[in-house]
Amino acid sequence: MVSENNGARRALVTGASGFIGSRLVPALLSDGWKVRVLARTPDKLDVAWRDDVDVFQGDATDDEDLSQALDGIDVAYYLLHSMDGKGDFIERDKKLAQGFAKAAERHSVGRIVYMGGLHNDEAELAPHMASRAEVGRILEESGVPTTILQAGIVLGEDSASFQMLRHLSERLPIAIAPKWVTNQVQPIDIDDVIHFLVRAADLPSEESGALDVGMEQTLSYREMIRRYAEVTGLSKRFMATVPVLTPALASRWVGLVTPVGAGVARPLVGSLIDDAVKGQGSARDASEVLGDPERGLMNFEKSIETRTKDVDTKRFWRVGRRVIAAVGAAAVTGSIMTKPDGTWYQSLKKPSWQPPAAVFPIVWTGLYATIAAASTMTIAERIENGDEKEARDYATALGANLVLNAGWSGAFFRGHSLLLSVATAGLLTASSADLARRGGRTRPQIGALLSPYALWCGFATALSAAIARQNA
């Protein structure tokens, strides 16, 4: 598979700005390949190697762009698949693969290398996994020798799978999870994936088909969470399972408690509803065909240690303890100042639509828990993303909100000032809406989580105003 370009081997990498592609390119350059990348937005390519490759600006959905990008290519890496959660991903991926396969065959490309997922050939697969398997078949049937590397969870700093594992491990010391957390998985470190991808380019032309990649350890997702906690010095994690969380519900749960959006989480969850281990079908073991790295495959503990060396794994609960203390102080202060059984309150005229007294502590307990969780996520995620100022601004806004929160009880129950309590409730409503706005700018799910607080404060303002009018 040598081109006529001065004997240099030429590789095309699609998805070069992505998690795997951005790491594959420098590895191919180090191995002596001339690399071309197909990119819609070249500015998103890694500046560390962008000037060392042939950048072709184009779109893989455009036949003319594909034709030009594949011209003179010996090995084409197909690292494209939909992770946006949109409903038409199956048809989009199919058409994209068909177009790529035809163009590769037309330009006599020596080999296509594709990243698929570990799966059981006989099982009924989740939609995203089934789509990836179909893409592999389309490429393999193109007439071009095709190698399909099938991986489970890829461990690496920018991997969505790793981010989901990491944040679930760090944020949930105790959790109720779907039963798929007990399924078996053979993860693999990103460095080992890159090793196999580079080695696949050197296969003889008669070699074609699927190769399974994965470390030797077979672990359940629950066990991976437990071991992640051990390696990173977190407290022991406890996880109970329930059979009622569908992949759709589970992905929304993941999208709420972690920065991994539900649209991305859904295919990740879908890949875990069945065992993701090597040897479930006709695929051969990549270690036997391509050979392992000289150091051997990285085990789970070493991979986690490597991938978290620059990660503050204890930030979330360090922030959480401070937020919980502040929210708890406001809740206790407000509770101490609240006297619903006092003579003055009992003598007030109240609107007929005021809820029963028992409702208020129930609602406020849930709201305080929501405020603490949402605020911890907002501040921790802002800090992790380098938005220190936004984190400080949110913390300041939260502090002001909690002062108003406790202050309303003081103005109403202790100060007996109906007008001041209406004004305080109005300010609290505005402050709560501002918190929801700030949280929503961090993640829409956080904004949605804080919205009931703002709505309840709005209701409290209307109730305070009604009491003030009736007792004027």
Automatic annotation (TrEMBL):
CDD domains: TSPO_MBR (cd15904)
InterPro entries: NAD(P)-bd_dom, NAD(P)-bd_dom_sf, TspO/MBR-related_sf, TspO_MBR
GO biological process: tetrapyrrole metabolic process
Keyword Transmembrane helix: yes
Keywords per UniProt: Membrane, Transmembrane, Transmembrane helix
Gene Ontology CC terms: membrane
Domain NAD(P)-binding residues, every copy: 15-161
Locations listed in the record: Membrane
Family: Belongs to the TspO/BZRP family.
Name the record gives this protein: NAD-dependent epimerase/dehydratase family protein
Organism: Flaviflexus ciconiae
Lineage summary: Bacteria, Bacillati, Actinomycetota, Actinomycetes, Actinomycetales
